[in-house]
Structure formats: structure tokens, C-alpha cells
Amino acid sequence: MQIPEGYFEEVHMHLKKQTAHLLNEGMQTPEDYFDQVQTKLASQVESNTPKTQWSTLLRVAAIGILLVSGLLFIQSNDQSISDQLAQQESFENFEFDLEDLEELDPDLLGELLLSESPSMYSDDELLEHFEYEDIPLEDLMEII
Amino acid sequence: MTDDQHILDLLKGSNTQNAGFSALMHKYQERLYWHIRRIVLTHEDADDVFQNSMIKVFRSAAKFRGDASLYTWLYRICTNEALTHLKKAKQHQAEEVSEFVANRLKNDPYFDGDKVQVALKQAVTALPEKQMLVFNMKYYQNMKYEDISQILGTSVGGLKASYHHAVKKIESHIVHHHES
Lengths: 144, 180
Hints:
The complex is a heterodimer. Chain A is mostly helical. Chain A contains 5 helices and no strands. Chain B is mainly α. The chains are: A mainly alpha, B mainly alpha.
């Protein structure tokens, strides 16, 4: 006696379908649900994979931009601090020079102010005043 | 059947992830779906929870350290997702558990069980969380206590006691339902 090939598998599948309703206590799924959900999820994860790589790249790029901005900011801060220090130093030196230059000609002093600390005495009116008016040194000291 | 370790290896490889996911779905999707469905009851909710769980599995597979078996890990993820979903659903309903279950099943186009089956679902859903899970896994899926123990992190003795209590409560509920 012989049986067809795959007979038991076929019977098993048939019985499984017939009894699924009983085993699942009245709960069913839409027809071909498992095939459909497998296809749906497979396409979701496939489309997610390159997105994930892109998002990783974007994240890395954003972090890089932040780091570079941070470094530039620190550098510009350092530069402005060193500029301020240099400015302050030149101003202090200038004050020191004034003490020794009581007989300094006001016109020369005006030029000195221009060259030593242009950012602090850049007011046009004041410079004109220094250059073209004969201001006594004492008055000038008060102004400063 | 594809070996679990082979599926994991495929899932962890950047070029073989999709193949690994297909193999995993092919092997486990029906078991996991029904496990979820018995907790959340309706097909619509089970479908949502199942898909979310599978996407979570796919995304975190690379980080899976292999402390537990793949089978245990999958069941844990699905169980947690399903319980969280059920809790949220219950929070939005002021009705009693039995009424909540009856309404959900009545509105599910993929449920055509009779009154006894509805009563059974009401009894199971009214059980404390752990008893419900043990009952579902043992009664419907015929899982070994050792496997359930790995998934739920409870001793085998504790699980046997929980199952015993669950069966007694369900029997009592069904008898009471039949008499009334």
C-alpha cells in the first residue's frame, strides 16, 4: 500500500484550516492577511533602511556644522578679547606717555591720539577740535 | 525552519537585514499575531500592535545582545506592546471589563464567536495581567512553562500557581454566566 507524496502535509494543512476557527475561539483574520502584512512590513523596512542611513548622515553633518560654528565663535571671541587687551594696553601706554609729554604740542597730540587709539577717539568733531584749535594740555586732559 | 541564530545574524548584517526580517516574519508572524490578538481582542488593534512590534524588532535587532533567545525576545516585545495598548484602551472606557470586552468583540468584523466564546474572553480579560498571560500562552499556545518563565521573568512554580488560579476563576465565571 502506498500513499501520495506529501499526503500528510496536505491533510495537516487542511485540518489546520478547518479547525482554525475553533482554536481561535471565533476570532478570524482577513483573507491572506499574513501574506499582505508580510509584504507591507517588508516594503516598510526596505524604504526605512536608506532613510535611516540618510538621517544618520544628516545628523553627522548637523553635528559637524555645530562644532565648526562653536570653534569659530570661540576663535572670534579670543580675537576680540586680544583686540581689547591690545587696545587697553595701547591706551595705558598712551596715558603713561602723556605724563612725560607736558610740553607736547596740541596738534601733535591730536595726531598721536589718531594713530594710537583710533577707535576710542574717532569722533570727527573731537579730532578737528584737536587739530585746528589751540587747546591747552590741561583742558585736553580733562576731556580725556 | 530557519535557525534563530541564522535569522539574528542576517538581521544584524547591514546588507542582509531585509532577508533576515523576511525569514523572521515567515517563521514567527502567525504565532506572534495570535498572541497579541488574544490580549487586545480585535483584529484592527492586533494588526496595529503587531506591525508596531515588528518595526521595533527590526530597528532594535542590531542592538540585541543575545542574552535571551530570539523567541523569548520577540514574545517580550509583543507582550509589552499589547499590554500597553490594552491599558490605554481600557483607560478611555468607563465601563466594566465584561462590557468592554463584549463591545469590542461585537464591533469587530473578524469575530463571529458565540455567547460562550464571548463569556470566555470576558473571563480571561478580567484576570490579573500575569494570570491572563499565562492562561493565553499555556491554554491556547501550549507553551512550556520554562519558555513562559523566560518571557515573563517569573518562576515556573509561580506560573503554575497563576495558571491554576486563572483556570478556577474562568470556570467560575463560565458557570455563573451559564446559570444566569
